[in-house]
């Protein structure tokens, strides 16, 4: 993990006001990498929802808590072919939240809440949670769907 | 940043919403909707989303709360002007079918 080409690194605070800044920067980044418009929106939605979960659940709404975000271009092997991808890693020092609890309802239930993790999983190709050195780490990968040849990073 | 401007027609409130609806701004939308339904008992509230370029799950939650409040008092919540970004998120939530959505303001305010 995290062996690819670092594109962008952000040190954020857990303030909802910063979400629009991240969305704008990430939208530009995804576009520059060549993602189609709809996939740019999907990546932006996934990261926004993940940051929202960190602010609301890991930090319980407390602002000014640290969040680190890194964005790398990586290559992965899918179906025997090398494919470029965007890897996004978010780290926070808040409490660990059971990812199952974040998806707290069936989609058929018409009530507010419980959609964020569903949006993340639907938008990204890989979603992995883990706890490491007292930090929550969320790794997400979005494939670029442009087969490449050559060595794996 | 979110802007919500209200226009009052006869027994209809039209909210012209512009900006992004996210964790920071969705409480404002929620408050506006609940006030119209619970306090004002407005029979119909129309949301013009033409200038909303982003909505996340907290925004969808605010719309759902507004819809529930409208049903509680026998009113209607109608959305129009959804661009592809907003429509995609509503479709992803599988909640698009529960909302009354029209193509234009004329349809939304029609008797």
Structural account:
The complex is a heterodimer of chains A (153) and B (111). Chain A has 153 residues and is an alpha+beta fold. Chain A has one domain: Heat Shock Protein 90 (2-Layer Sandwich). Chain A has four helices and five strands, in the order E-H-H-E-E-H-H-E-E. Chain A has helices at 19-33, 37-58, 99-102, 116-123; strands at 5-13, 66-78, 81-92, 126-132, 135-148. In chain A, a hairpin with a 2-residue loop joins strand 4 and strand 5 (135-148). In chain A, helix 2 (37-58) runs antiparallel to helix 4. With 111 residues, chain B is of the alpha/beta class. Chain B has one domain (2-109): 2-Layer Sandwich (Transcription Regulator spoIIAA), CATH 3.30.750. In chain B, 40% of the residues lie in helices and 34% in strands. Chain B is built from four helices and five strands, in the order E-E-H-E-H-E-H-E-H. In chain B, strand 4 (76-80), helix 3 (84-92) and strand 5 form a beta-alpha-beta unit. In chain B, helix 1 (26-39) packs parallel to helix 2 (57-72). The longest helix of chain B has 16 residues, at 57-72. The model of chain B has no long low-confidence stretch (mean pLDDT 96). The chains are: A alpha+beta (153), B alpha/beta (111).
SSE map:
The complex is a heterodimer of chains A (153) and B (111).
Chain A: E1 5-13, H1 19-33, H2 37-58, E2 66-78, E3 81-92, H3 99-102, H4 116-123, E4 126-132, E5 135-148
Antiparallel strand pairs in A: 1-2, 2-3, 3-5, 4-5
Chain B: E1 2-9, E2 12-21, H1 26-39, E3 44-55, H2 57-72, E4 76-80, H3 84-92, E5 100-102, H4 105-109
Parallel strand pairs in B: 2-3, 3-4, 4-5
Antiparallel strand pairs in B: 1-2
């Amino acid at each position: 993990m995290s062996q690819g080409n670092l594109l962008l690194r952000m040190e954020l605070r857990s303030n909802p006001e910063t979400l629009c800044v991240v969305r704008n920067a990430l939208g530009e980044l995804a576009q520059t990498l060549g993602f189609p418009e709809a996939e740019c929106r999907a990546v932006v939605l996934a990261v926004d929802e993940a940051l929202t979960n960190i602010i609301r659940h890991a930090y319980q709404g407390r602002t000014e808590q640290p969040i680190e975000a890194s964005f790398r271009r990586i290559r992965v092997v899918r179906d025997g072919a090398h494919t470029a991808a965007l890897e996004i890693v978010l780290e926070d020092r808040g409490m660990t939240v059971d990812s199952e609890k974040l998806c707290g309802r069936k989609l058929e239930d018409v009530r507010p809440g419980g959609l964020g993790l569903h949006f993340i999983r639907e938008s990204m190709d890989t979603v992995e949670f883990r706890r490491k050195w007292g930090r929550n780490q969320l790794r997400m990968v979005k494939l670029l769907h442009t087969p490449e040849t050559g060595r794996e990073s | 940043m979110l802007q919500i401007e209200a226009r009052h027609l006869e027994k209809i409130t039209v909210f012209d919403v512009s900006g992004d609806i996210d964790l920071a701004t969705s409480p404002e939308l929620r408050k506006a909707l609940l006030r119209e339904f619970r306090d004002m008992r407005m029979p119909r509230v129309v949301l013009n989303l033409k200038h909303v370029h982003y909505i996340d799950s907290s925004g969808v939650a605010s719309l759902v709360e507004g819809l529930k409040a409208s049903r509680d008092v026998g009113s209607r919540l109608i959305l129009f002007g959804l661009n592809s970004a907003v429509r995609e998120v509503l479709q992803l939530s599988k909640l698009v079918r529960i909302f009354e959505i029209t193509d234009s303001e004329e349809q939304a305010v029609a008797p």
